[in-house]
Every structure is written in structure tokens, then in C-alpha cells.
Recover the amino acids of this structure.
């Protein structure tokens, strides 16, 4: 169950990677703005501690597991739109095809995405976002950046969020209360999926999350091929 | 412990099993195969409520018969439409018998005409094959799809080359000047080798309609990608009508997943009526589940004149009037056995 959670959560997988590769800390040149970042990080942590985390815990507590899974599936299905878009931009046509097939079957047979029928049918998910697309084409990540309310990012990935924003179908919901409810639920779902994963964080929380994030991004951009220098610490 | 009733039941089951064992070799000698394909879908069409409908299900029996001849055997096919909607047998689809050998194949009965197998089927890529979806622009289906009263001869397959000629004779009174002995015929030549599959076919009816149709079609497979194109041109003299249709289709297959797309144009020109020139496009995603199952999601859309042409073809093929929906979404499930 834990391994499943680690796979499913974006940042969660990063945490897992960090645990495997630890203690290989990222070089400080990747985080020249550490002072500013730490301040924003502390602000985010405060917001999380008093608002998001209690809400996520409450959500997990009151919602049946099957409903949580359904909500997760629903938003994951919507994310496949962005996955297809970015797979095409990275010339990964097979991944784009699979994403399109996932969207088709999950949106119809999977009742608007609440049931992930595509995975048991053998069409696996492939996650891509615009930050990865820029990375694929050689844009370097730039300094590490903690975005207020959002969390770990880099200059490149932070800028790419604006493209991810418009490739997410929710932004095209015209009815404002519905749209905001969807955003809120998506956030709640994402946060609640991190509850279990974050228990493995050890040591300096800021440093741990930063390194986990940066390694996770490298992992995603290279589609799983990571060059980790294991000898650097010995 | 078994009570008396259960004992009786057990005895009768044993009796049945013995009887079954005795009849089994007789069935094997007849060498008949029961086969079928059950297909159901949920259809959402423009201006219509949701409908769970049958998607051309069929059940058939086919087999070979030893005629005691060297290099020639008998063969038969009997295939019925079955409806998963009404739960009943539908109309007959195929019912023919014949003989096949190194000299070719001769068939008599209700069978596919080459215009369908060599021309129309090449761009007939969609699972949803109804006259309002996958076969909407198939003019050839009006007279040359599965047709009764047909006698046909097919040459052997000569390195991919094969020719078929068929004649329709459906009786009628000698006193009726519109009736002929040979009511219609259809000839076709097809070449299939090295990924290329190309055909040409001509069909004509001498009876009251005075109909003729010519079609060429080809498909070419390069690895996972298949492209196909078709052009059909014909006329119905009795209705002062000329018609034509072209379609291009593409299928990309990735493992068990296939993506299909097709675009087509059709024209009908009738003396004294406004010309119709319309389009249809469609897409489908198909996922095979094992060897004998699949699910698919298909969508098709007509422009206004395309809708009118499809409705007109529908009524000519089916013999009943219907306005084909402007756009249709189908979620289908299919099992073959």
C-alpha cells in the first residue's frame, strides 16, 4: 500500500527517490536563493499546518476510501489532457497515444474518469508537464524556487506552471463556483495523498523536500534514467 | 448422502453424458463450427435520447464437407443476425453453399458481393458499422453487399491476385417487361500482397432500376500504420440520379490499442432536384481485450448535406425512411466466439 502511494503522488515519488539516494544532497549552486526560499517555505509550512493539513486529514477521515479513489481518478483523468499535450511537444507519440486512449476510455466507460478502467485494460499512465517539456528541449532548471502556496519548484518549472494552468480542463469551466470547487477539491485530494508519504521525511525538512523535488524532476525529465553519483560521499 | 430424487437426477445426468459421448463423433464428422460475434453499444445521437442498441451481432454455423473428390470439398455458411436489443434472431446475413478446390471456388446462395469485400470494406474501419455510422456513405451497399439469389465464381488466389464474378437471378414473371433472367451482376479483381491491398469492381443491375456502379479502393500497411482510400462512382437511370463518394481512412495500432480516423465526401445529383454534396468524418479508439474481446469509443459527424445523403442511402439500403443523426457517439463492447 505504501509503495502504491509513493508511486501515485508526484512529490511522493520524489520523496521515495530521495530516500533511496540519500544522503546525496543537491549542490548549493542549485539553491542560491536559499534565504528567500526558506522564508517562503516557512510561510507555506504555516499555511499547511493550520489550514491544508487539517483539512486534508478531515477529508480523509470523513470520506470513504472508494470516494477518495474516485476523486483522485477524476483529477488524474483531467491531467491526462496535459500529459497528451506535453507528450506531443516532446515527440513522445506513443505516450501521447496512450494518454489519448486513457482519456477516451476513462471519460466514457470510466464514468467521467471516476473509475480508472484504462490501467487494468493495460494502457499505462505517462505523466508529463510543461516544465518537463522545457527540460526535454534543453532548458536548464535555473535556481530552486519555493513558490508561495504552491511549494517546491524551479524558475523554469515555476514559469511553466502558467502553461500547465491553461492545459488543465478545469480552467475552462465557465461556472465560477463549480470551477473553484473543483480547484479546492483537487488541492485537497493532492494534499491528502501526501499525508502518508510525508511521514518518511527526516532531518532538515526544507533540505529534504528540496533535494527530493530536484531529483524527482531529473528522474521525470529523463524518463527514469538518472545519473546518481554514489561515490561522491565515500 | 443423496436422496431418491438426487439419485434419479444423477442417473439421468449419467445417461445424458453417455448419449452425449455417443453423438459427439457424429458432430465431429460433419465438421461444422459454431461461431459468432456479439456486439452491444450505448449510443448518444444528436436530438435523440440515450439508447442501448445492438451493433450488428451475428451467430453462424460454417463447415466443410468431404465430397469424396480429390482436391475439391464442399463448404457451407449459415449466418444470422441476432439482436442484443430485442433478444431475437434478426434477418439472415449469409446462407450459401458451394465447392472449393485448386480450380477456384463456386458459391450459390446469399453471400457477399465483391463490391463489398474488395471496395467498401477497405475504408470500413469502424467497429460501429451501421448505415448511420461506419457504412453511412457506402453506395455499393444498396445492391452489392450481402445479396440473395447469387451465383458466384472466384478464381484461386494467384500470388495475391484474385478475381470474382457473380450473377443475381431473382425470378419474376415472364410477362413483366422490366424483369430479366440475369437481374444483376458484379465482378471484381483484387490484389493483396506485401502490405498492399488494392481492388477494382463493377456492378450493374438490368432490372427496373437500371443501376451501375464502379469502385476502386486500396489500403497500404506500413508497420503499425494503415492508410486506405476509396472512390466510387455510379448512377441509377430509373431515378435520373448520379452519385459518387470518396473516403480516406487511417488506422494506427499500438499494441492492443488502435486509433482510427476517416474523412469522406459524397455527392448525389438528381435531375430536377438540388445537388447534394456532403461530408462525414469519424474517429474511433479501440482497445482489444485478449484475443476475443474489445471495447471501443467512436464518434462521427456529418455536415447538413452529408446528413441528407446518409439518410437517403439508409432508406435505399434498409427500405425504410430514417433521418440519420447529425452526430453520434458510441461506446461499444464486443465478444467473438
Amino acid at each position: 500500500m505504501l509503495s502504491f502511494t509513493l508511486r501515485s503522488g508526484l512529490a511522493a515519488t520524489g520523496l521515495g527517490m530521495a530516500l533511496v539516494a540519500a544522503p546525496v544532497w543537491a549542490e548549493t549552486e542549485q539553491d542560491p536563493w536559499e534565504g528567500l526560499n526558506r522564508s517562503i517555505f516557512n510561510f507555506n509550512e504555516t499555511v499547511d499546518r493550520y489550514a491544508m493539513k487539517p483539512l486534508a486529514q478531515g477529508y480523509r477521515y470523513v470520506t470513504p476510501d472508494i470516494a477518495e479513489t474516485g476523486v483522485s481518478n477524476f483529477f488524474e483523468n483531467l491531467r491526462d489532457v496535459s500529459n497528451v499535450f506535453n507528450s506531443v511537444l516532446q515527440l513522445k507519440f506513443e505516450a501521447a497515444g496512450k494518454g489519448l486512449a486513457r482519456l477516451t476510455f476513462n471519460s466514457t466507460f470510466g464514468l467521467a474518469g471516476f473509475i480508472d478502467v484504462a490501467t487494468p485494460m493495460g494502457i499505462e499512465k505517462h505523466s508529463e508537464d510543461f516544465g518537463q517539456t522545457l527540460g526535454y528541449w534543453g532548458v536548464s532548471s535555473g535556481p530552486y524556487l519555493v513558490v508561495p502556496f504552491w511549494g517546491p519548484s524551479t524558475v523554469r518549472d515555476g514559469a511553466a506552471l502558467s502553461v500547465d494552468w491553461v492545459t488543465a480542463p478545469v480552467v475552462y469551466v465557465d461556472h465560477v463556483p463549480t470551477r473553484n470547487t473543483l480547484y479546492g477539491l483537487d488541492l485537497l485530494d493532492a494534499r491528502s495523498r501526501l499525508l502518508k508519504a510525508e511521514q518518511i521525511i527526516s532531518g532538515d525538512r526544507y533540505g529534504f523536500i528540496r533535494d527530493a523535488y530536484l531529483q524527482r524532476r531529473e528522474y521525470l525529465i529523463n524518463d527514469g534514467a538518472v545519473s546518481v553519483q554514489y561515490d561522491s560521499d565515500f | 448422502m443423496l436422496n431418491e430424487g438426487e439419485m434419479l437426477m444423477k442417473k439421468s445426468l449419467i445417461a445424458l453424458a453417455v448419449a452425449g459421448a455417443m453423438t459427439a463423433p457424429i458432430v465431429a464428422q460433419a465438421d461444422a463450427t459454431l461461431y459468432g460475434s456479439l456486439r452491444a453499444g450505448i449510443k448518444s445521437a444528436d436530438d435523440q435520447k440515450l439508447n442501448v442498441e445492438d451493433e450488428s451481432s451475428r451467430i453462424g454455423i460454417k463447415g466443410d464437407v468431404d465430397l469424396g473428390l480429390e482436391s475439391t470439398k464442399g463448404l457451407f455458411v449459415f449466418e444470422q443476425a441476432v439482436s442484443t436489443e430485442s433478444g431475437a434472431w434478426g434477418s439472415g446475413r449469409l446462407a450459401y453453399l458451394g465447392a472449393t478446390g485448386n480450380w477456384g471456388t463456386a458459391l450459390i446462395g446469399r453471400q457477399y458481393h465483391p463490391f463489398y469485400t474488395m471496395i467498401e470494406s477497405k475504408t470500413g474501419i469502424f467497429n460501429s458499422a451501421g448505415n448511420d455510422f461506419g457504412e453511412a456513405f457506402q453506395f455499393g451497399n444498396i445492391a452489392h453487399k450481402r445479396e440473395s439469389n447469387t451465383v458466384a465464381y472466384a478464381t484461386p488466389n494467384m500470388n495475391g491476385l484474385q478475381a470474382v464474378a457473380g450473377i443475381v437471378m431473382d425470378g419474376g414473371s415472364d410477362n413483366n417487361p422490366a424483369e430479366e433472367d440475369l437481374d444483376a451482376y458484379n465482378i471484381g479483381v483484387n490484389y493483396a500482397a506485401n502490405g498492399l491491398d488494392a481492388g477494382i469492381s463493377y456492378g450493374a443491375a438490368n432490372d427496373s432500376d437500371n443501376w451501375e456502379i464502379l469502385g476502386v479502393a486500396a489500403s497500404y500497411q506500413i508497420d503499425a500504420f494503415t492508410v486506405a482510400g476509396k472512390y466510387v462512382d455510379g448512377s441509377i437511370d430509373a431515378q435520373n440520379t448520379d452519385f459518387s463518394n470518396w473516403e480516406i481512412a487511417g488506422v494506427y495500432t499500438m499494441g492492443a490499442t488502435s486509433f482510427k480516423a476517416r474523412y469522406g465526401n459524397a455527392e448525389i445529383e438528381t435531375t430536377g432536384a438540388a445537388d447534394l454534396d456532403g461530408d462525414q468524418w469519424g474517429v474511433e479508439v479501440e482497445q482489444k481485450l485478449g484475443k476475443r474481446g474489445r471495447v471501443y469509443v467512436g464518434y462521427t459527424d456529418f455536415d447538413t448535406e452529408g446528413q441528407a445523403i446518409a439518410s437517403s442511402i439508409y432508406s435505399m439500403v434498409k427500405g425504410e425512411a430514417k433521418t440519420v443523426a447529425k452526430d453520434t457517439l458510441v461506446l461499444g463492447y464486443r465478444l467473438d466466439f
